[in-house]
Amino acid sequence: MRPFPIAVILMQIAMTTSCAREKPERAAQVVRRYAAVEANQAVAVDAQYFYAIDNAAIGKYEKSTGARVARWAGEPTGAVAHLNSGIVHKGLLYCAHSNYPDTPMVSSVEVFETDRMAHVRHVPLPNGLGSATWVEHTDVAWWVTFAHYAGEGGEPGKGPEATTLVRFDPDWREQGAWFFPRAVVSRWDGMSSSGGTWADERRLYITGHHARELYMLELPASGRELALAGIISIESEGQGIALDRAAGLLYSIQRRTREVLVSKLPEL
Prior knowledge:
By secondary structure, this protein is mainly β. It has helices at residues 6-21, 182-185; strands spanning 26-27, 29-35, 42-45, 49-53, 57-62, 68-73, 83-89, 92-98, 107-113, 118-124, 131-137, 142-147, 164-168, 174-179, 195-198, 203-207, 213-218, 227-233, 242-244, 249-254, 259-264. Strands 1-18-17-16-15 form a 5-stranded mixed beta sheet, with no helix packed on it. Strands 2-21-20-19 form a 4-stranded antiparallel beta sheet, with no helix packed on it.
């Protein structure tokens, strides 16, 4: 029998190692569930409340009881049509927003005052970047992921691999952009990243559209591709997420049951 060339053997070893690394390594444990009729796109969280987000509605719920205490709902033909993942910052809820599935893609960040649950600001985002699916904030920057799709809502010549994480300064001026790892993009099944949050100064947690997986990504030391650091199995089927850093808990949604799930994450 003719021996395999050493290059082929090395490639097979590399592929086997890569596949093993891309399997979920650990699992998050659900510790609480809340019924929330708006749990269709995402969830955001602050010290006392969580906010279940639908396309054009947001419910404000007490963490302690799960009771809904306030709600915002847009007009049926209003400007707010497709809210996505959100984050609470200084009493304001910032939600990524797009015209999905219409094209060409138009994106914005819609801002709500959490006390009154009132829509207070519209932040237009640059055209040509994609469909805004999640927004995050750090001390010195805003971060928005712009999705691209293989099917409905996609634009010719661009698929999920064109999805980017874009950094903006405090005045929403673009500062840089990063692509997602090919090993993660391949698990999106033609869709894109629906949720994301910073785990620490360098590492991100992100979700896809429907896989029961949480991807740990790292900013690269150089280059424009984020690095895959690990995969955590979760019960939620993708969509927008939030991290309650004070409690060390992940908030996610299960859209088919309209629930908000609270999970304990494994140690980093």
